[in-house]
Specification:
OB fold (Dihydrolipoamide Acetyltransferase, E2P), globular, 15 strands, Rossmann fold, 2 domains, alpha/beta
């Protein structure tokens, strides 16, 4: 799927037009640019149905979260907002991505890559009727853990966390470019909590989920730098660089 059909929803005219322009420049077909949730719901009744929504959160007439709850059947959503505190909630409701304003070209392209990966299974051809179906993998609950919030806790999915950091005598889980206080006291406890999940200690204070790495760049003295899905750049120690290259399948050189 190359050209994605997108609906843009944002109550700020300049932000709405900028987002539409960036999406068109990236090769998308922007079906419409809408101002609020009622306009979105009315537009979806008229069709054609888009492949995904780029949706603001704080809008008059209803929030982006409320709009998502109204969609039946649901649509893939990328939330676009000026408020970083919404990040955890956005991923709890299974947003494909979360963009902070102002949005730039490189970040849009990453979101579109995620959308294409998200939509790929639905677009895959069905297996021939004569073939023997592969056994379904056993159903497993998402790996979730509590993170501290004001007055209580909320829950993060392990597969959406990019990395864990030990800082200020605490362990922090990074998700959507924001960090959240995790329940463990050391990175060793994190490794014990998720055995077999491939976490890699790239520095004494950093554990990375290799699936979150988007790019790798060699540095001097045998070290390396990786860029994560949320744009974060981390340095890899000299001792761990060979192991990381092996995991990423890029070998030597």
């Amino acid at each position: 799927m190359n050209s994605l059909r997108i609906l843009v929803v944002d109550d700020e005219p300049l932000a709405r037009k900028r987002l539409g322009r960036l999406l068109r420049a990236a090769g998308c077909e922007v079906l419409d640019e809408l101002r609020n949730v009622p306009d979105l719901l009315a537009r979806l009744e008229e069709g054609p149905r888009p492949d995904a929504l780029f949706l603001d959160i704080e809008m008059p007439g209803g929030t982006g979260m409320e709009a998502l709850a109204e969609l039946d059947p649901p649509l893939p959503v990328v939330f676009v907002t000026a408020y970083p505190e919404h990040a955890a909630r956005a991923f709890e409701v299974d947003a494909v991505d979360y963009l902070l304003k102002p949005v730039f070209k490189d970040r849009i392209e990453k979101s579109l890559e995620k959308l294409r990966r998200h939509l790929a299974p639905a677009a895959a051809p069905a297996s021939p009727a004569t073939s023997t179906p592969a056994p379904a993998p056993p159903a497993t609950a998402p790996l979730r853990f509590p993170a501290r919030a004001a007055g209580g806790h909320f829950f993060l999915e392990f597969r959406k966390v990019s990395h864990f950091e030990f800082d200020e005598h605490a362990v922090w889980a990074w998700l959507g470019g924001q960090r959240f206080r995790a329940p463990w006291e050391s990175l060793g406890e994190v490794e014990e909590a998720f055995p077999g999940q491939g976490l890699l200690r790239i520095q004494r204070h950093l554990l990375v989920r290799p699936e979150a790495i988007l790019s790798h760049r060699p540095l001097l003295n045998g070290r390396a730098q990786v860029r994560l899905a949320d744009g974060t750049e981390l340095e890899v120690s000299r001792s761990m660089t060979p192991r990381l290259r092996e995991i990423l399948g890029i070998g030597k050189g």
